[in-house]
Design brief:
heterodimer, A: alpha/beta, 12-stranded mixed β-sheet, 4 helices, 12 strands, B: alpha+beta, 7-stranded antiparallel β-sheet, 13 helices, 18 strands
Chain lengths: 277, 409
């Protein structure tokens, strides 16, 4: 929290970010915003102002950890490019825009996101897609712990999260809806298993597809593991096609390997705990 | 602290009426950097790494520890002291002078910084232990220093030892880390290893002594998280003469490392395993020998396990160790650029200091990241060559060890 008292620090104090408006270059429906050293609040204000003025593509350069980029944007058709390291909670609560990160993303990308699309060309951190309830998140590289935790779906709002690399523990923890896909293809560590432990722990809705296999001990007690059959692949193929196009990868190559399907065995595994029969 | 609700002048607030004009973005932030070649870095580097993580704290605690910063007194114990008043200073100095030969004492160099106020009286002392009390107590110099720290912190009202190691020091207080660093003029220091912290106090008070790092001898600890096992850890440490008197959970981590590394001489990897042990379900899947070692460690050092979420960095003369809790409930990113190894809560902090690192990764839960300064003798065993019996021996009497060895034979 920056207070008024400290917003103008004494000479000599090193500032992480300055509370100043970023430099903006606008040309027609495109704009470039220089985020170098600018505090997230002024940066996001500038982006929102440009979007409200009808700018369709906002290219943000010099990003280094600023939070909430694209947060809350309910602007279908608007595209936000992030060049640098996207900060925590990028695209949080977003509903309709597209955020493309050319670099890594820190923790909490797509937190409680409702719609739109996020593409991360690097790695993404922990709690990616936390409570996501719509839209798509595509990551090229590795992802952290608790990815897709508590994703949920309702009628036509079905969130989809595809990770091109490998994931750590608690992938899809408490998952209640939507689709999680883990490819294990673009990971940087050959020795790392495709997923960690507690995969789908507490899962009670939605579905997960893992390219390759996972061991039963890696999975939570509530899920069933099977090889994805043709009836499942028909739903997976268009997702892979869109992901491959976004990442400039070959969809056929991705689909050439068998996928493991992980889904909850029961819709309400603990129903009897609270309403004894 | 006062929040200025009228300050927010962002874009068209009417459109975003549901948004509060401010949010406390708490979570604590930390960093550690070590140049393994031994090359020295100005204190500005850790300040810059902490400044971009400003929103992780709330101005109620910031601090740093630097190593190799006192080349003019490399073999003296340097005590950084905080005093509430002159009476506390007199009382603490009496204890120090009765036990140590004080070769140099001076007020800590500071400059006025807006945002930093109510500072205690800050002094530093470069000292060597007196021989008579050392012989009388029949203790190692290190244990003698630890005893002195515990006595001052627990018994002298209004006096607090901020650090007590050789060729190192802690600089901490109430404020944001970049303000604290500026206050202590850290740009005038050069060290091969630095740790830094931005505090968001949750369930313990924000006061000068409660800021991180917590230190003892050469060890310094910065911590993001909550040690919910504090009570059982503190009780365990009391049996070994450590008095937890600072009112902040992180204190136990500093003392546990001192106990495990210096007194029980565990290799650093094993000490980290004690603090963040594998789950029993993981142990069941390990090869038999490793599983036996893990079971033994968990049995012998059960009360030393840190429960709850944490990311910590341990600094020492010769490097640093960064460690996450075993189910990774706090962020930690690591990177290497040339001979420099760096860890931080956020990638942005790393890229502030090293924009294009050679490698950047997120360490696995419970897996330590270790930096060692070339040519410096480590204050602990560096390799893992212990049988379960040997590990158990570390905390049992010598006779019991012989028995165990006989059984093993």
């Amino acid at each position: 929290m920056m207070t008024a008292a400290t917003s103008t620090p004494p000479a000599g104090v090193i500032e992480g970010y300055r509370q100043v408006a970023p430099l903006v270059e606008r040309s027609g429906l495109e704009a470039r915003v220089d985020a170098t050293g600018v505090y997230f609040q002024q940066l996001n204000d500038a982006v929102r102002r440009l979007v409200s003025e009808g700018v369709a593509t906002v290219r943000i350069t010099g990003v280094n950890g600023q939070r909430y980029l694209g947060a809350g944007l309910a602007a279908p058709g608007v595209r936000i490019e992030v060049h640098g390291t996207a900060g925590n909670d990028t695209a949080m609560f977003m509903d309709g825009a597209e955020v493309e990160v050319f670099g890594n993303a820190q923790d909490g990308v797509g937190n409680t996101m409702s719609g739109g699309r996020v593409i991360v060309h690097g790695d993404a951190g922990d709690v990616l897609g936390y409570g996501m309830r719509g839209g798509k998140v595509f990551v090229r590289g590795d992802v952290g712990y608790r990815v897709g935790i508590h994703m949920k779906a309702f009628e036509k709002h079905v969130p989809i999260l595809v990770c091109g690399g490998k994931a750590r523990d608690f992938f899809g923890e408490y998952m209640a809806g939507g689709m999680l896909v883990l490819l294990g293809m673009n990971g940087r560590d050959e020795a790392q298993p495709i997923a960690g432990s507690f995969l789908g722990a507490g899962m009670h809705g939605g579905v997960m597809y893992v390219r390759g296999t996972v061991e039963p001990w890696q999975c939570g007690a509530e899920v069933g593991i099977s090889e994805a059959g043709e009836e499942h692949l028909s739903g997976l193929r268009p997702v892979i096609a869109e992901y491959a196009a976004a990442m400039d990868m070959d969809a056929d190559e991705i689909l050439a390997a068998p996928f493991t399907r992980i889904a909850p065995m029961s819709h309400r595994p603990y129903a009897k705990l609270y309403a004894p029969m | 602290m006062a929040y200025d609700l009228g300050r927010y002048d962002g874009f068209s607030p009417d459109n975003y009426r549901e948004e509060s004009p401010f949010k406390i973005h708490g979570g604590c932030g930390l960093m550690g950097i070590c140049d393994e070649s031994g090359a020295l870095m100005s204190g500005e580097e850790p300040i810059r790494a902490m400044a971009v993580q400003r929103d992780r704290g709330n101005g109620l605690g910031g601090g740093f520890a630097g190593y190799g910063i006192y080349p003019e007194f490399p073999d003296h114990y340097c005590f950084h002291m905080m005093y509430h008043d002159l009476r506390a200073r007199d009382e603490a100095e009496e204890i120090l002078r009765s036990r140590f030969v004080v070769d140099h004492a001076e007020p800590m160099p500071t400059r006025p910084v807006r945002g930093i106020h109510d500072a205690p009286i800050l002094w530093r002392y470069f000292m060597t232990p007196r021989e008579e009390p050392l012989e009388e107590l029949d203790r190692s110099a290190e244990d003698f220093v630890v005893g002195t720290v515990m006595e001052i912190n627990a018994r002298v009202d209004g006096a607090f030892v901020a650090s007590s190691g050789k060729n190192m020091g802690a600089f901490k207080g109430v404020g944001y880390p970049e303000e604290i660093g500026h206050y202590f003029q850290l740009e005038d220091y050069a060290g091969h290893t630095w740790v830094g912290h931005n505090r968001f106090p949750t369930n313990t008070p924000g006061w000068w002594g409660g800021a991180h790092p917590f230190t003892l001898l050469d060890w310094s600890i910065v911590h993001n998280g909550e040690i919910s096992s504090y009570g059982i850890n503190a009780r365990y440490l009391e049996q070994f003469g450590y008095a937890c008197s600072l009112g902040t959970d992180t204190e136990v981590a500093a003392y546990l490392f001192d106990l495990l590394l210096r007194r029980h001489r565990l290799p650093v990897e094993l000490a980290c395993t004690v603090l963040a042990p594998p789950l029993w379900s993981e142990i069941e899947r390990m090869p038999a020998e490793r599983a036996a070692l893990m079971r033994s460690l968990r049995a012998v050092y059960g009360p030393a396990m840190l429960n709850g979420p944490f990311a910590i960095v341990l600094g020492f003369n010769g490097g640093m160790v960064a460690l996450n809790d075993r189910i990774k409930l706090r962020p930690l990113v690591a990177a290497r650029s040339g001979s420099r190894l760096m860890v931080a809560s956020e990638e942005s902090a790393i890229r502030t200091v090293m924009p294009e690192p050679d490698t950047l990764w997120t360490p696995r839960a419970g897996e330590p990241v270790i930096a060692r300064v070339k040519g410096m003798e480590l204050p602990f065993h560096s390799t893992l060559h212990a049988t379960p019996a040997e590990v158990s021996c570390a905390v049992t009497a010598a006779d019991a060890c012989h028995e165990l060895e006989e059984v093993a034979v």
